[in-house]
Automatic annotation (TrEMBL):
It comes from Pedobacter cryoconitis. PANTHER family: AMP-BINDING DOMAIN-CONTAINING PROTEIN-RELATED, LONG-CHAIN-FATTY-ACID--COA LIGASE. Transmembrane segments: none annotated. This is AMP-binding protein. Residues 23-460 form the AMP-dependent synthetase/ligase domain. One of its GO terms (cellular component) is membrane. Pfam families: AMP-binding (PF00501), AMP-binding_C_3 (PF23562). Keywords: ATP-binding, Nucleotide-binding.
Amino acid sequence: MVSFNEFSTVPSLLRNVVENIHKPEETFLIHKKNNEWENISFKQTLDTADAVAAFFLSKGIAKGDRMGLMIENGPDYVYYDQGIQQIGAINVSIYPTLSEQEVEYIINDSGIKAILIGNPFLYKKILKIADNCRHLQYIIPAFAEYTKTTVPQGLNKTIISFEELIKEGKELVSTYQVKIKETRAILRPSDTSSLIYTSGTTGTPKGVMLSHSNFVENVKVCLQQIPIIDETDVFLSFLPLSHVFERTATYHVCCAQGCKIAYAQSLELLAKNMAEIKPTVMSCVPRLLERIHDKAIKSGTAEGGLKAKIFLWALETGQNYRHQIEAGKTPGIVLAVEKRIAEKLVFSKIKEKTGGRLKFMISGGAALPKNVGEFFGNLGIKILEGFGLTETSPVMSVTEYDRQVYGTVGRIIPGIEVAIQHIESKEMISIQTHESFAADFECAEGEIIVRGHCVMQGYFNKPAETAEAIDKNNWFHTGDIGRFYKGNLQITDRLKNMIVNAYGKNVYPTPVENIYLKSLKIESLFLIGDKREYLTAIIIPNRESLQEKFNLSDAYFLQPDIFINEPEIIDWIGQDIRKLSNELSKFERIKNFRIKRNPFSIDEGEITPTMKIKRKVVEKIYAEAINELYTEAVDAD
């Protein structure tokens, strides 16, 4: 475990590694270049970061200036971030999927002075809006072909490639070396390190101000809660660094502990990259785990016969073995032998596809369905769940490595308080800390609120919104509903998502949706029913399963009709809806549904970059179809 200086800042983490853990020439970053994996040392990283710092210092960039990034994960992100952080500038990472209007708003609201751009598409987007961005001075393409793009006539911005910027910066390092060290030394934990704009399901994006202390303390306590992470680990990074989860759980953790970071080429090549890199740790989102689960189940049972029987027997054996271990018991000889056979025949083949070295995966960003977590547990692949928001740096709780409670998001991290507050009366139901943990503790549900080192400094230039989110007693109101279960935090849903039906019954969509997502025919679904007599849903089918079952071509999904109307497909989905409804209370069951041909879209404004559905937007766009669902109900009782 790394020993931290109490007043550490983000740029001090990596330098601590070089001084105390690894030699400067050892590998830190790994990425694919010219179809070959290339290793980049700690020294190369820090030298390039110094070049970035020297360049910007020569241009008058100073402490507190906001500096933008709109770029895919990779070494360039690290060079730029480390360079600007050590001179006190503030990282403003922008989701590449945002619209021109949203990007323009963020650049102007934050006052970005320079922005690093990752590809031609994003470069064109920036060039279109650059003249409207009054503070923007430098546009920095990080790819060679930028010269092929026509620059608007009269553009009053300096365009310099990142390669040229680094080259110029290296020539300036000797001149600015002392100043770089001085600015790095006077950084305070309370200084703002980053502005991260919430995509939000409603309203204008807000810039969350996170300090160096927010990030560093979050990393320290996460490593304390998961002490198995060490300097030999290899993380595979694929979630966007514009999101706080990947920034903290992979990038900052590796900077603190000296782990290697390998960058996946793309989501499409993730499986290939996992096999090549053989990571020991990965941060991921539930949807990825759900897809791995679905494919494994389908592959293991598709042929039927003996192969399917062996697969299902292996899963049952893994479950029995897991239950014994979790109960603190030693599995008997017969079960232990059966587990070894299951490992050889089934589990090892699934693990090979992840590279075969995974110690664990960290799941965040949304709740992981309980059955999916248990599935991986049966295989012997440990999934640690975490919970938090951009406003909480992000981690508030995370699963302990040696104590798994499926369907929960772990134990409260050290140094903060998490409370459950009654939604209506605002009375405190329970206040818990890391130290007050009791394995048998449970309480009623309410809104989750938090105070302590993880809570943001506030929303940039939005004092009213900050005051609304953080009350006079410094409690940050998350807007999430949850409770404590077996000592761990358990998330029920978002407060804004809560459906109150016409009879006054409260329905939390997420747990209901997770029951229906057990169907391999369903990719996702959107639950409807606020102030209505019963629940309905818009369902996104699993495209692969649908195409295979009904022999559909890709052209089928390009048809103009938004919804699928073929009775045989509706009945095929309906079979699983009726079957799974038996696991729910009557008022939680879907009585009617429409099948949407294609997933909800970021481009249409239906979902956020973090894949959260904008409920009000979707309800407005599909109002006519939703109303039709209530003209005639399909009884699922």
